[in-house]
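Morning run. Coffee first, then this:
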Amino acid sequence: MYHSKPLTKDNWDDFEKLFQKHKGVRGGCWCTFHQLPSSDYIKMSRQDRKYYHRKRVEEHIATGLILYEDQNPIGWCQFGRGDIFEQLNRNRAYKKLDKEKQMTPDWRITCIFIDKDYRRIGLSSVILSKTLEMIRDLGGGIVEAFPFDLESSDKPNYNGSVPMFEREGFEKVARLGKNIQLMRKNIEK
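And here it is:
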């Protein structure tokens, strides 16, 4: 019923279809927020962000996993090599961690998004599981995630939830600010 494919230039149109339906998601981010320094992100228009992400996909820098129901794209999980997420590399709270907790992980998972017509049926967990399988197939290693640690919220949580990551074997490392929980997991191939 549900299947997934990594985002490439060949299926960019599927990614665009999903994000266009939701006006670029989260204020027109186009899943670029974590890939840029804040100052650059703020200066870009929604269209600039879309083109920026597409260029990074074409250059094999950015990637993620698209979740499909049949041929219809219904979900997205952005992941990539740890060093490509400029926003996280510059995060002040991360830099303040003691040296044992600071690192450049092999992989980071930054965003999980499900089409508004498919929410509340567990698809975030499905795409997270498929993303972890893909990371294992790509060689595994240390994976970081940054879910919001909120009691409850009616708004979509584009970072996933702490319990969802815990079910996949992630462990809490440290708080980053008021609501973000840094979590890690080592995936062996």
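The chain has a mean pLDDT of 91. Good start to the day.
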